[in-house]
Amino acid sequence: MNPRMTEGSGDAELLTSILEHHLAIRRLEDLRLALIAEIDREGVARQAGYPGTVELVMDLLLLDRRQARRVVAEARDRAPLGAEHRGTSGRDP
Asked: What residues contact residue 15 under an 8 Å CB cut-off, 6+ apart?
């Protein structure tokens, strides 16, 4: 925490709260990208009748094509999600 904030002040609580929420959002975003990467690796989009992962993400997450392309590209750049986080046994890409 920033040393300029006094302990126990309402401002410090607000700032702590926003930081905690920000970190939670980052963790969820990391998980979302890992799941999209796995969907992409496993070919789930084609199995579900979509031409590719971008189209599935567009439909599922209600994103336009530009946003979906960006999310899928970012997911592909990330490390794969391990089976221990999914609660299932995964296969190698």
From this structure: 1, 2, 5
